[in-house]
Design goal:
Low-confidence stretches: none
CATH topology of the largest domain: Rossmann fold
Strand order of the largest sheet: 3-2-1-4-5-6-7
Mean pLDDT: 92
Shape: globular
CATH superfamily of the largest domain: Glycogen Phosphorylase B
CATH class of the largest domain: Alpha Beta
Helix content: 40-55%
Number of strands: 13
Oligomer: single chain
Strand content: 5-15%
Length: 383
């Protein structure tokens, strides 16, 4: 008998890699006919309208300050009652047998007391507590603990994060499934339109040679150390290359701008802000490389995007990134600006190496199969 499975997609388009993760999960499950999938999305979200799945759109009530206080009060005492849900919300969720929550959210599944599976992407607050306020750390601990205890299963994308879930949250090994997500399906067979390259280049005033880093300005994205590394390249070498940054302007944006100004790099480092999603592939394909200097990442979606689009990758040697890239990227110490600069220069100057990494990256992405990804998720659902 088919289950009604609700996929919760309440996550902003400019919210980082989790947005692409949700897209990949829906891509994979849309072809499965053994269950009935219902997408829950914000009222103005149209990205799943053409998938042939039922899409129920609403404005979640959990976003008000009062309801947030009720939610965390309940989590604190271990209560799971839908006090804050409107009647129309309860009705729209009533026929769901199992929820899939690709983001680490407690709404609405925890309070409806329905079975659910959720994805825990990382526990970086345990490694970089100073990057979070006390309130943020408290909320993350409370939410992660409540979700892990109540969930039928937890999905993560690397063995590193699985160990964290077991160590910090006490989850048994058989409750945590490691399932790496492929990049969104359209990128694996992306056909760029030649006429769009010049249009995108003009739109963002892109230089001829640039290094690309798409990431929101959070502490762990390590923009400041990347700028220090780029300063070495700009001042100690004759490389005519620009650093292009994109992503929403989060907490560390003022510090990033101050760093660029202090190093007098305003003419060599450009922050584009949020990029229209349809333009992203062109920014990748015109770049000399993707650089990923992050201090903490379970799995990096931009790395898979670069692999799929034929762009060489230079990245950190932290957490699960070596597990993710294998021999398909040049890696560096993200805390060492000189090492980062050295590896970037090596990739800029060694064309045969860059070409070889492109081949290896494409092969690594080719090994991903959305059907296989769906089978792994279904195995967790059926279990």
């Amino acid at each position: 008998m088919k289950k009604n499975i609700g996929i919760l997609t309440f996550y902003p388009m400019h919210g980082g890699g989790i947005f692409q993760y949700i897209q990949s999960m829906v891509d994979a499950l849309a072809a499965d006919k053994s269950n009935r999938y219902i997408i829950f999305a914000d009222k103005d979200d149209t990205r799943f309208d053409g998938y042939g799945l039922e899409v129920r759109k609403l404005s979640p009530s959990n976003r008000s300050g009062v309801n947030q206080a009720i939610i965390f009060s309940q989590l604190l005492v271990g209560m799971r009652q839908p006090f804050f849900l409107r009647d129309d919300e309860k009705q729209v969720y009533a026929d769901i047998d199992l929820f899939l929550s690709p983001a680490t959210s407690v709404y609405p599944h925890v309070f409806l007391k329905k079975p659910f599976i959720f994805t825990l992407h990382d526990m970086q607050e345990k490694y970089y507590p100073h990057a979070f306020t006390r309130v943020e750390r408290f909320k993350r601990v409370l939410r992660n603990r409540a979700l892990t205890q109540a969930a039928q299963a937890v999905i993560c994308e690397s063995n590193y994060v699985k160990q964290d879930i077991m160590n910090f949250l006490g989850a048994p090994s058989d409750k945590v499934a490691v399932i790496q997500s492929p990049p969104p399906d359209f990128l694996r067979s992306y056909a760029a339109k030649p006429e769009n390259f010049a249009a995108v280049q003009r739109k963002y005033a892109l230089p001829e040679r640039y290094i690309f880093y798409p990431a929101q300005c959070w502490f762990h994205k390590n923009h400041l150390k990347l700028v220090e590394a780029f300063n070495i390249i700009a001042n100690d070498t004759d490389e005519d290359v620009t650093l292009i940054l994109s992503g929403s302007q989060q907490d560390y944006y003022p510090q990033l701008m101050a760093k660029i100004q202090a190093l007098n790099l305003g003419h060599r480092v450009k922050h584009l802000g949020y990029i229209d999603y349809e333009d992203i592939p062109y920014l990748y394909k015109m770049a000399k490389m993707l650089v990923m200097p992050t201090l903490f990442e379970s799995v990096s979606i931009p790395i898979y995007e670069a692999f799929a689009l034929g762009v060489p990758v230079c990245c950190s040697n932290v957490v699960a990134l070596p597990e993710q890239v294998g021999d398909a990227a040049l890696i560096f110490d993200p805390n060492n600006a000189a090492d980062m600069a050295d590896k970037i220069l090596q990739l800029l100057r060694d064309a045969p190496l860059a070409a070889e990494l492109v081949i290896r990256g494409k092969q690594r992405v080719k090994n991903f199969d959305h059907a296989d990804y769906a089978r792994k998720i279904l195995a967790v659902i059926n279990k």
